[in-house]
Write the structure tokens for this entry.
Amino acid sequence: MARNDNPNARRFMESMEKHGERKEAEKFSSVCSLSRTASAEKRFRWAKELCDFLDRNYDYEKIREIRMDCACGPTKGMIERIIPLYQKEDPVSFVEKVNALDLGYSLEYDGTSYFLIYPECYCSCVKASDDLLSRTWCYCTLGYTKKWLESVFGKEVSVELLEAVKCGDSRCRIRITEK
């Protein structure tokens, strides 16, 4: 039997189960497995097949929920590094301090929302390929962004994917709005 011990495959199964779709996830995983040692080509192919599966079987809201819950989590160290920089009363200063850390992404603030910008795709499953994917794949970055900024802000945020490298855009850009 094919192994599904890749962290991305495990998170997908857990998310599908959380959203009441365990049987469908098991069907998908029996046909399209992903092992921990899968090559970059195999990881990308699996991601594409996962997107095709979700796009065929679910509506936008369900896909977004499932993929957001597939997200890997921000490291505790990264969150601990950012929390002291946050001052609710001074979002511009917060953005400047975060950007000064040169963490591979940048933040912007327009007076009402923050924007997280990645200059390239950092996803270990798909970054090695120049091929494009459905936006479905990139909704996991919304889950990641939501997790770490809610930890920093200490309250719920809404997130919206505006641009994505893997969808043909020149960068990834996510709007974050405090609730």
